Amino acid sequence: MNIESIEDELRRAFPNSEVVVFSEGNLLELNIKAEQFKNISKVKRQQMIYAVIKHRIKTGEVHAVSISATSPDEEEK
To answer: What is the CATH number of the domain that holds 62?
Structure first.
């Protein structure tokens, strides 16, 4: 799994965002802070992120994903 390419995809989808990706095997942990998440529900944020990486899930490259998605004015939980 190429972490840098995943980070690049997410940065293109969410310009000016802070993106950190960790992996263990085919499990991903995504930490994304993006202005696009302001006033958006947690579920919608996750849907936005899954839309970017769904091709990796379909191929089996990614099996499970843990997501922290916040806007710049929020604290990570």
So the answer is: 3.30.300.90
